[in-house]
Amino acid sequence: MWSGPCLRQNSCEGWVYEMTRGLVDLRSDTVTAPSSAMRQAMAEAEVGDDVYGEDPTVNRLEEAVAARLGKEAGLFVPSGTMANQVAILAHTDRGDELFLHRESHAYYYEGAAATLWAGVMVTLLEGAEGLFTPEELKSRVRPQDIHHPRPRLVLLENTHNRAGGAALSPERLDPVMALSHELDLKVHVDGARLFNAAVALGVPARRLVRDADSVSVCLSKGLGAPVGSVLVGPREFIERARRFRKWLGGGMRQAGILAAAGLVALENIDRLAEDHRRARDLWEGLVALGYQAWMPTVPTNMVMVDTVEPNHRMVAALKAEGVLVGALTPSRLRLVTHLDVSDEDIARALEAFETIRGSYGG
To answer: Between the CA of residue 207 and those of 91, 165, 274, what are the distances in Å?
Structure first.
């Protein structure tokens, strides 16, 4: 029962609530609690009215993320979904065509928002690890004709969530972006976990998005901020996006309190390698126990486990053993490591999987 302050010492000096007492939470990297340093930065943040452009901490965060990704300007928004939708709105007009992978977050998890708000037609493409080929894209772009929507925007995702946290390399991304521009299409990269991809590939994040027209990055996933994403791109594009942020209710006034957490979160980029290593340890342990891992390796911080359908009983059984996991599909579990998961937590998770193995395992 939720009765007050928290217990997990590796989660910001105990600021996790009784509700999750003693649990190993592998449902997502969004469940992290802000660290004591992050809380102090939030408490001491210099603030102003961000809708007027007068919050100095927000301005610093936007400039820092834009510079890190090699873009002119940035825009702080409450969520990754809003960042993607503001980008789609800013790149398109009603009746335009948006091309994206059928397993992409913007299609699968954002409630048809692109159709609802931007009025675009969504065309779904196929491809391995959440990325379609230039040939696949070219085959789906129709010639200009009054009978067809206007082809306008390509959306890519890196890392790719439903592809098991796949980290997409420049060698794979560059040809798709180059063809997009040849076809007079803009490119937006949903980089909710872009820094995971950069760390996994050993490539600067700015290189991964060098040819993108806009990029969104999430601060509240592996980087550990409590809330917030940043959309970056050319200055003129960002000013247009600012208007759409207002339309969607994303103007947050003294948002420097949140932006301060984002600035501290940027210091966590290099430590994402620890999450990746723990995810590999978890994957290796599950394979050793006989579980069916969906992918032959673990590229970043996600582990996918195929299960006996339906898997809701397995989720419940693991929770009873003190481990929280997510169900990606009726027969696939998703386990995500993050900064509040320790080596001891990985060991506990493996013990739980071993305990239930006879009923639900490999």
So the answer is: 22, 19, 22
For the chain, the domain total comes to: 2
**Burial of 182 (C-beta count, 10 Å sphere; 0-12/13-18/19+):** exposed
Instruction: State how far the alpha carbon of 48 is from the alpha carbons of 57, 198, 254, 256, in Å.
Output: 8, 33, 5, 7
Question: Are both 96 and 166 inside the same structural domain?
Answer: yes
The predicted-structure confidence for 326-354, as pLDDT tens digits, reads as follows 998 888 999 999 999 999 999 999 999 99
- Distance between CA atoms of 45 and 58, rounded to whole angstroms? 10
Prediction pTM value? 0.92
What tokens does 12 get?
């910001």
**pLDDT tens digits, residue range 74-109?**
999 999 999 999 999 999 999 999 999 999 999 999
Based on the domain organization, do 276 and 143 belong to the same domain? no
For the domain that residue 317 is a member of, what is the CATH number?
3.90.1150.10
Domain membership of residue 339 as a residue range:
18-33+271-360
Rounded CA-CA distance 84/187 in Å is 12
Distance CA 325, CA 316 (A): 9
CA–CA separation, 3 and 14 (whole Å): 14
Residue 91 CA to residue 286 CA, distance in Å, equals 43
Q: How far apart are CA 62 and CA 23, in angstroms?
A: 35
Let me know: does 167 contact 196? Beta carbons within 8 Å. yes
Tell me which residue of 352, 29, 23, 312 sits closest to 165, measured CA to CA.
29
Those residues whose C-beta lies under 8 Å from the C-beta of residue 288, and which sit 6 or more positions away, are none
Do 276 and 323 fall into the same domain?
A: yes
Please check whether residues 141 and 205 belong to one and the same domain: yes
| 292 contacts: CB under 8 Å, gap ≥ 6 | 305, 306, 307, 362
Same domain, 97 and 234: yes
